[in-house]
Amino acid sequence: MKRITIAALAFALAAPGLSLAQNEQFVPANFYWVGPYAPGGSGFGGGINGVKITYEKCETEYNNARGVECYERSKKKGPTGATVVHPLSTGITYSLIDKSLADKIPLISLGYGRTDASDGRVFPYVFPLITNYWSQNTAKIKFIGMKEGGMDKLKGKKIVNIYHDSAYGKETIPVLDIQAKKYGFQVTHIAVPHPGNEQQAQWLQVRQIKPDWVILRGWGVMNPTALKSAAKIGYPRNKIIAVWWSGAEEDAIPAGDAAKGYISAGFNLPGADMPVMKEIQKHVYGKGKGEFEDKSRFGSIYHTRGVVAGIVTTEAIRTAQERYGKGKPITGEQMRWGIENLNISAARLKQLGASDLMAPLKVSCLDHEGGSPVKFMQWDGRKWSVISDWIATDQSIVRPMIEASAAQYAKEKGITPRDCSKEK
Comparing 55-59, 119-123, 355-359, which segment has the lowest mean pLDDT? Predict the structure, then answer.
């Protein structure tokens, strides 16, 4: 296992780390550095009150079976076993839900995963933190409404949802259908098979439909291919709004001029000048530490997203230590409590130097998402520029859907939902 300092996630705030094996906190790095989705995985992936953070890499290749294999390999590592797992894949998250419950190891699916797991009464060990897919999609429709001059102007509009033909890609079909009915727009769902480098037929459909807006729910090579395909049929890129897994530098740069004007949602923002990023540069890369091979990606979307994941993880460990004891490793079960009681306030973000990186986050037994808002960015040909304030998600749509879906899951699995009023 390797020891790391997670820069401003903990290094500037923690007591000096101890090197004793029993005083280590193991957090698996089950990500992907190869294959068609490598840009997202490779860009993603300290000591806390005297407890060192250790990790061990395991290549999942964004493959469900490999993701489960990595989980099984890592779950008993370290003095307390795996503290928490970031699957970095909606499909892998689905595959690990039952296992994580049985093993009492929390899953953090940061801005991805199974949306109805936001109901912590039914999914005590799964945390689709910050903003889940359904919530994000309500912010997208709000953004489109703003651009059209009001939500009432959506009536009669045409929206095409081009999605990766996977669990991840299909996740927002239900919420889009509900929003279409509510606001009176027409939505057409068009699937793109893995890995997404063939899209001619899909964009011919777009040309025939002539939509007012396109929502791109892609991943990996599918994203620049979509932008190039849009350019070929003359579809304006400033009418394409992406999920945040389609809105990184690695999605836009390969498309060249075809990406200019492209819009993406975001729960984290890029940049190297934020205090937290300057601290990482100074204390990690400036001292020859870290394993980020391509330093040109420093401060990019996927890199800062990894920093957000680190902040969330270490702050949850810190929260758990406040209850279960500082200076000693916590178990997965204790980490679950730490995540469920996580409160990263605006004041705390300022203390961490991350106020311009992410929005505040507050989690509870009932709400495993945190309800954070969404910003939108636009590609100007060389970088992402923020073009909106934080836009609140529409929980009047999302929360009833989450509770209904979670209740159905509980019924199918024979689960008795927790009573959050009895949780301490």
Answer: 55-59
Largest CA distance in the chain: 65
E strand segments, 119-181: 126-127, 158-164
**What is the reported pTM?**
0.88
Residue 59: phi, psi to the nearest 5?
Answer: -80, 115
Paired residues of 119 in beta bridges: 367
The angle at the Cα of 27, spanning 26 to 32, to the nearest 5 degrees, equals 140
- Other CB atoms within 10 Å distance of the CB of residue 309: 22
The predicted-structure confidence for 371-387, as pLDDT tens digits, reads as follows 889 999 999 999 999 99
162: CB partners within 8 A, 6+ apart: 190, 192, 199, 202, 206, 214, 215, 216, 217, 218, 226
Any idea what DSSP says for residue 147?
H
CA distance 366 to 419: 9
Burial 211-244 (b: 16+ CB within 10 A, else e): bbbbbbbbbbbbbbbbbbbbbeeebebebbbbbb
Residue 189, judged by CB atoms within 10 A of its CB (0-12, 13-18, 19+), counts as middle
Determine what percent of the chain falls in helix, strand and coil, rounding each to the nearest 5: 45, 15, 40
- Nearest Cα to 307, choosing from 277, 273, 272, 347? 277
- Residue 208's CB: how many other CB atoms inside 10 A? 9
Instruction: Identify which of 277, 270, 272, 267 has the alpha carbon closest to the alpha carbon of residue 250.
Output: 270
Query: What are the φ/ψ torsions at residue 58 (nearest 5 degrees)?
Result: -145, 120
Per the CB < 8 A criterion, the answer to whether 362 and 343 are in contact is yes
- Of 224, 233, 232, 226, whose CA–CA distance to 255 is shortest? 224
Helices (H), 167-300: 167-170, 173-183, 200-209, 222-233, 249-252, 275-283
Residue 206's Cα: distance from chain center in Å? 28
Beta bridge partners of 26: 54
Coil/strand/helix, residue 166: coil
Opening angle at CA 67, ends 254 and 131, nearest 5 = 65
pLDDT digits (tens, 9 = 90+) for 310-360: 999 999 999 999 999 988 889 999 999 999 999 999 999 999 999 999 999
Strand partners, 3: 54
- Residue 208 carries which side chain, given as an amino acid letter? Q
